[in-house]
Amino acid sequence: MKTKLMTAALTLVVMASVSACGSKTEEAPAKASVQPSAAAAATPKAEPATPVKLRIAWWGAQERHDATQKALTQYTALHPNVTFESEFSGWDGYFDKLGVQFAAKNAPDIIQMDAAYLNEYVGRNLVADLASINVADMDKALIESGKVNGKLFAMPLGTAALGMAYDKTVIEKLGLKAPAWDWTWDDYYKFGQDAKAKLGKDKYVFVDQSSDLVDYTAYQLSRGKGQSFTDNKLSIDKDTWITYMNKQSEMRKAGIVTPADITVTDKELDPKMDSVVNGTALARHIFSNQVGAINGLKPDSFGFTTLPKATQTGGWLKPGMFWSVNAGSKQQEEAKKFVDWFINDQEAGKTLSLTRGIPGNAKIVTTLAPNFSASDKTSVDFINKVGPAAQKFVAEPQGWGNFKKDYKTIVEKVMFDKATADQAYEELMKKAKEYDTAVKK
User: Which residues form the signal peptide (predicted)?
Assistant: First the structure.
């Protein structure tokens, strides 16, 4: 129900904002007349003289890094005593590093959080309650996604939809028909065969992302077999999983998906190592909040579509990411003031745009809409295409934060022909029992 409300509310905001681009739109007030949140409004006059350094960590591509750094500079201009020490990287290894930092009691004050890890971090009392932050203009259902047991521990920064990006320039050269927004798995497999026949050797149609639990979850959902997690336990349907993995192996042998040695070196949104960006493959899964990033790496090259469907759709809307505040930070209140500013300030909204998804603050979206770039409009279109039939988003339960890594390791054995799909499934179930046992302790 929560996801349906979020979908409906977000679609209304996005559609209203985009339609306003073609009509008379109320201009955002000048900065001096913007009414900030209560905490932000009080800050300029009540600014303490004591210097404050906030460590802040996030993952993302260059577009997000640049926008975030600019926003930090803006905040320091407003609050000269507050400076930042930034720690940014790609997704790979981000939570591994964060885990080490928390274990050493040396984690940043503000951390970008993912829904897959939120329950885990709250359960270990690592992140602070954000109840003091003004969320009056935020989508209420979206705010609920950052709550655990009724308390807000993660501030959602935007909404994203799961779909696919493909190199439209190569598809046009090959004389192929681009994937439709509502394509099916049968369409997907046929497209793979047709494209491979024209691509030839050493070029592939899809990046093999079968070791990412996200991809399999979308497949299982589309087959009407439910989520990968149900009632805080792994809920992978055996027959569906084995069928999916065997089909992936079949495509791997046919050269339709990338071979194992290329797959394990692929780095999403890396200028050199992303297999779609460097021309090794035609398509990969992507979230709508990554549209601007991939377009920036290879301008005017990409088209976008939904994930394939079967008896139903497999895609979902999810909070793109969150800000959480380290519960052990000595600068908690200053960190919360920054988060408040980040989600509510109009100038911050303009700087950050859609780099973390469609903002949850309706006033920010309305301000941004008249100046949406082509990539922004594509991101909005992405949301509107996926939204109406979106599946419910389910985050990993507490205690399962590292399961995706184990899943990846096990599936890579299938990729390298070190295990059959049946053997890998049995190993997966043994690993799941280990997690169940650990959670119950």
Answer: 1-20
